[in-house]
User: Fold GDSL esterase/lipase from Taxus chinensis.
Amino acid sequence: NIVPMSTQVSQFEQLVSEKRNYEVSKSLYCFAIGSNDISNYLSNSTSTPKEFLSLLLTKFNEYITRLYRVGARKFLVLDIPALGCTPNSRLIDSNGECLKAANLLAEAYNTALKPLIDQLNQQLEELSIILLNSFDSLLDMIQHGEAY
Assistant:
């Protein structure tokens, strides 16, 4: 029972409107979104990858902007990890290798996410979004496990 991000943002907006003295701007908001979307897209795609990624980025922009409007200023955003290298994904490949399609979509999203975050940081006063690179971190652990 995954609660859609749009519902979570709406619930937060409602909470903030009810708690007038809540210090929204002093809190840190952590985002780890997109992984389920990519998994669902790969198993059930009806649009092109470009259209799909555009929709994901548009939604990300919308959610950040909505939260900003109610006072949120500090965000930690995890990019999409190497989904194709998760144990479940590797079971799908007959050789146990990482699923390229999943990793390519995650990489494309992450590449487009960085300039969007830079743009939001510049356009919205006092906004601070830090992007954490989980894709490369996970992939490095998988490819160089002995170093960990």
Observations:
- The beta strands are 28-31, 74-78, 128-132.
- The domain at 27-147 is CATH 3.40.50.1110 (Rossmann fold).
- The chain has six helices and three strands.
- The chain has a mean pLDDT of 92.
